[in-house]
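Example record used in the benchmark description.
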Amino acid sequence: MTAPPPSLWLDGLDSPITPTRPLARDIDVDVAIVGAGFTGLWTAYYLRRARPEARIAIVEKEFAGFGASGRNGGWASALLPTSLATLAREHGRDSALAFDAAMRASVDELITAARDIGTDAHIAKGGTVVVARTALQWERARAEVREANEFGLGDHLQLLDRDAAAKRLNATGTLGGTFTPDCAVIQPARLVRALAAAVSGLGVDLYEGTPATAISPHKVITPGGEITATHVIRATEGYTAGLPGYKRAVAPVYSLMIATAPLSDAQWQEIGLAQRETFSDYRHLIVYGQRTADGRMIFGGRGAPYHFGSATRPEFDTHAKVFTKLHASLAEMFPTLANVAITHRWGGALGIARDWHASVGLDSHTGLGWAGGYVGDGVTTTNLAGRTLRDLILGEDTALTRLPWVGHQSRRWEMEPLRWIGANAGLAAMSVADAEEHLTRRPSMIARALSPLVGGH
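Model output (structure tokens):
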């Protein structure tokens, strides 16, 4: 098995990870799940609670939580994987608002479920503050609030003036910002490992160290045996391209993070985040951060390249130049952290569909189900996906199964080298766009031209 990545979250577990036994024989079950991250585990958890007699098996190449579930930014947010305006245009206003409400409710559901399985996972629902640090960023903040008000969601996204924004997050150059209460910080590795234990305790068979070499209707092939199942659920997210026939389904894009040593009370008093708010700003190239339960600053962002052929390898989890840029950005936002020690550097692949639209679904004819394409906003979305897959597997018509992402089919990514050229051009554009705006003091023409390649991210 691959050595665990140097994630602060995985390093912070109370006990070493001891993988379960691998699959070593042919088995017959009701539901076979490929992937023991949040998507696969939540699906098994909710399904087994609804149908205790259901025979469920999960296969995982590494260990539960090895991928994005154990390495993410620690945000349990209500961020929609697709904008409200896009959803309203494609599916109608009511469907868009229903999806938004389901995401917000899922934040609280996740917190409740974590408590039910016996872990606090260092959760604190402090909301999210996003600061505007240039005049153009301030315009984007105001436009976002205007859109929220147009959808009647003003209570869930507040516009902050300079003082109110700086009180929550005292980043340099802050002109204002926005705040939403619909987000919690979380220690994701504690949650995913506790969830794996809870699922096993419910009688689900978890086979770690068991790669799926192929999936097909009613069948999962592994080196140790074949699984025959009524339903086969693909929950592989950023690693989907490793399955035969899925090379162009989801592109793996890397996001990287750094963690500081614990900060002093004086440093935190200067920075803010008194309620452990998650934070970002309105630049084009995404950055994100949080204050951990033990007083560290976690800071991450995009910028690592997409790798030819949708490759995912352990050496891609680190990138010295990106880590250096993250540290520089952190120090630029918070000068008090310029010389603070960085104790952890890590990264991992997240899954992006060609139209940047997450989806969940089940084909009743083949028994093949899936969920993914979360574009880095998966901690909460996976919980919603797990409950939705439960309802789909049980054949129930519910409010969840009528949400607009259910059954959505994204077109496949282009063949190489077009995929490599387009994905990296889009990522590079967001870096250049921020520099362009700094020089011209006008909205970036580069960002506008290439935003379809990166879903506006």
